[in-house]
Amino acid sequence: MKAMSWRIFWILTLVIFLVVTTGCGSTTYRTLTEEFNRKDTDILEDKGQDIRGYVLTNGQYHDFKGKVALTADDSLRFWQAPDNSYNRRKDDPGFKLAVADVAGVKVYKSDPAGTVLTVIGVTLFIGVAVLAVAIATKESCPFIYSYDGQQYVFDGEPYGGAIMSSLQRTDASELEHLEPVDGAYRLRLGNEVDETQHTDHLELVTVDHAPGTRAVMDYAGLPHCFAEQAALSAARDEDGRDLMAWLRDDDEVAWYPDLASYAERDVLVDTRNHLTLEFPRPAGRDSVHLVANVGTGQWGSHMIRVMLGMRGNEVGAFYDAVNASEEYQRQLRVWNEREELFLLNVEVQEGEGWARQGTLHGGGPFISERRALPLDLSRIEGDTVRLRIHPPLGFWSLNSFHLAWEETPATVDRPALLSAVDNEGRDVKAVLSATDGATLDFPTTNESAELVFAAPQPQPDRVRTVFARTTGWYEIHLYNDGPPETDNLLRLTHEPGYIVHRALQELAEYRATGVLGYTKPAAAAP
Fold first, then answer.
1. Distance between CA 516 and CA 236 in Å, rounded?
2. What is the dihedral of CA 310, 311, 315, 320, to 10 degrees?
3. In this model, does residue 392 exceed pLDDT 50?
4. 3-state secondary structure labels for all residues of 135-149
5. Which of 447, 18, 517 is nearest to 195 (CA)?
6. Distance CA 220, CA 206 (A)
7. CA distances from 169 to 14, 159, 193, 201, 273 (A)
8. Which of 106, 135, 148, 312 could potentially form a cystine with 484 if both were Cys, beta carbons 3.0 to 4.6 Å apart?
């Protein structure tokens, strides 16, 4: 450190901080190839990953409750589950699909007691014979589970990317599975990640609105209820490929680039995809909202850990420097706007040119959230609204886009927190009841808390959407005691798109070795 000038130290600090604006922590990946290539053929045919559905490479999603496994001939074999046990019948041969025809699977996991249902969104990473289930350790943000009357269902990942105290932020998670039971809503907050989580505040927001309208939060945390919306009329990438099957509907199918093919290229000139989205212009409307369901891509999420790991044994000094400097934070936001790793700029065509009108924020990677972004259409010519986005390769997963307008009245309530008890039986209600700096700390994956909220009486002729607003921050557990990667950090600062090249390099290395950098070393065999 003595041999390093303050200028270079500031640059290194700046570079590593760039990842923290919105993306979640890293994800540990396993491939079915790696999972089964050490086993004999009988186990190849008999074992598999529990799933709830799969997506073909043409964008079609199929509900499927059963198992999938990689077979000896490099196909994927699917078995239908005859009951809730996910056990296959011995006389069921199942059916096979070519790996190249399957884009992803929707993975199912439950806790040892079978009381928690975790349905992780479709994992789009199969591409070139790689099926990433990404669930073994589920490294991500805190997990919120909603009680649906029978079981707890994974329903939210709040405050992603807030990896130090100065970056504490509030996130809104739509709780689609939450149902009132005996006049109360029940949630479970848990750490299932190799990190320390600090939750300052958690509250519910109920929005009672007219049937047929959609309640959506904006990025300021304010709900909007839209009576009208328009779906995409066209969506294409930089090569003219039709993406409508992936981006038109708010469904189980999300678009994600085939990173494995990019990682195999000798030269990569452009580090971004370039997507053009078209909508019919609503008659008589000069202002609308873009409702976007987008999130951080799984490999982009992992790159947060990589960029922090590049800081090496000086990561503590980096945290201290950033926490103490608002100027560092401002400069880093400028950098992130340039790179668009976890903030994605939206451009609107106005005449012959394009004007930036707003920014989408990444969440997830397992659960993305719908958010409303205002758009000004007053300078648009013609009957078509054209938008353009330029996501860096592998850093974004895109589910759907709609235009929405015609806001309607709604009743917004914040139900009382009746009780909050952690897994040791301690009362933590006071800690979570206000944003006051007192945090509920989960340093290991053994921690959790059960929360009970009063459920407001339903209103006649209204439907209800419930959101959790969660405030907090977390610390990723890093495993790199070596010196910082000075040269690479300088490239990250000054070379636009360098981080994409680094991400593809990390992916190629992972596919070759099965080892993720900066994660906990595997235990030695006895």
1. 33
2. -130
3. yes
4. CCCCCCCCEEEEECC
5. 447
6. 16
7. 19, 6, 19, 10, 29
8. 312
Identity of the residue numbered 333: R
Return the structure tokens found at 364: 């997830």
Q: Mutual orientation of helices 315-323 and 6-17 as an angle, nearest 10°?
A: 80
Give the Å distances, CA to CA, from 274 to 149, 239, 257, 352, 391.
43, 9, 11, 18, 7
| Chain position carrying tokens 């093919």 | 261
Q: How far apart are CA 97 and CA 427, in angstroms?
A: 51
Query: Mean of the pLDDT values across residues 285-304?
Result: 91
Q: Give the per-residue pLDDT at 10.
A: 26
CA–CA distance, 69 with 67 (Å, rounded to integer): 7
CA-based nearest residue to 323, from 13, 7, 6, 2: 13
The pTM assigned to this predicted structure is: 0.86
Encoded amino acid at 174, one letter: E
Domain ranges of the chain: 29-136
Q: In angstroms, what CA-CA distances link 371 with 228, 248, 282, 296?
A: 16, 16, 20, 14
Alpha helices in 426-514 (DSSP H): 429-432, 486-494, 498-513
Q: What is the pLDDT of residue 110?
A: 61
pLDDT value for 513: 78
> Residue 120: which of 268, 293, 254 has the closest Cα?
254
Assigned token pair, 95 = 């059916």
Segment 64-84, tens digit of pLDDT: 888 888 777 778 888 887 665
